[in-house]
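Lab notebook: predicted structure, single chain.

Context: the supervisor wants predicted structures on file for every construct in the current expression panel, including those that have not yet been purified. This is the next one on the list. No modifications to the sequence; it matches the entry in the shared construct table.
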Amino acid sequence: MHPNLMERRGSSICEFLVDNSGQEVQRISVIENLPRLLQENCSTCMRDVVPKVKEVLHMAPVEVQLAGCQSFISILESDILPHTSYTQSFLQSILTSVDSKDQVVANAWLETLLDVIDLLPKDVIQKDILNLAISKGQLSQSVQSRLSCCKILGKIATKFEPFLIKKEILPVVQSLCQDVDYEVRGCMCRQLDAVARGIGMEATKGSILPELVELANDEESFVRLAGLETVVSLLSLLDDDTCVQIIIPLVRKFCETALKAEDSTLPVVAKQLGKLCHGLSVNLNAEERQWFLRFYKQLCQLGLSNSGVLIKRSPEKQSPVNCQTPDLAQLFEEADIYAECRLSAAFNLPAMVLFAGAEEFGACLYDTFTALCEDPHHIVRKTTAAGFHEVAKCLGANVHLVQGELVILLKDEYIEVLEGIIPHLPDTLECLANSGRHFLTESLTTSDCNVSKLSVWDRAHQN
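Prediction complete. Output recorded below exactly as produced.
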């Protein structure tokens, strides 16, 4: 575009931006096109348009602010400006907007800042962001400010050398782990994985693990859940001694407490159990392995009698939830914590079969596997069916043990269960064929009716 044209265009855009009669949707369009305007004529746009955009954004409605967030990220991603120019013209606006009184706007700009941090050089982060983040973490600041600090520190913790993290960031992290507000403690806890990887294993054992152990035993379930999830994230970093001496006892206590309380932490334990067992497997002795297998089998039977009949949850254990839990309850007409646990247990079935070992499957997990295939809730059966081929692969030559359960699932009256088993049926049948045992073809044939129903249903929904 000719420079004079761009200058005239820039002037009209500026007039439009500051004109209060301008329609919001058109202002959004101008802001969304800011990266293109900068590419067409950077100097004119920076002189005439960008200052007016920043002026409008200061008091703009939410939709305009969200457009600004995306535009500011795109400008940095496109590498249109040198980092110094971007810092002066855009980063400072982002940092100011993070403190917006409108919580939706503040959160949007905070997420923008977190994305921008990934693209900025270390010296800019240290000069313009680090000190601001530290100041936001002081107890005198608002809860929202301290929450923002947690997320920013987690993002920048891997950007610096360990000595700088230990000197500047770690004291604030430890303070936020002890914060009087449980949301702040939980939020900081979720950033400990990044902080630990930034300072290294040895420093983690002395400064991060004591905080993590305390947070995993916090009085608030929100914080305890954050602690468990952080333990799972840290497993690959921790050495054998730490796992044996600290993590395994901590996880066992957590599991026992959750099972006894049957509160909102239990479905999360059920969801994370596969990762925990996999990550800790090499550090478990025989007794501990059996303990985790028994715990898993208990999860698979929650809410069921010995005959597989549903049991109503006792009223005194139906406590209100004030923490983040997996978004599973929406799958059930009622927020049935027992069904949530069995669903997560079904999802973890392949991991637990691998954990137990193919040779031990018959003695340790076969009855549990059968119970999941016949669970009263079809969503649990569907999840079991979806992982059936993985179980078959794990069992190897012992795959014939689950032949009958395959037939049970193929005969299930719920289309959703067939949707779980059919896509990977060739893989399952291949495992059975490779095991050297003859598969009961006649039994499989009896399920053809249900498979046909699934095909009809699938065709109907594709049209």
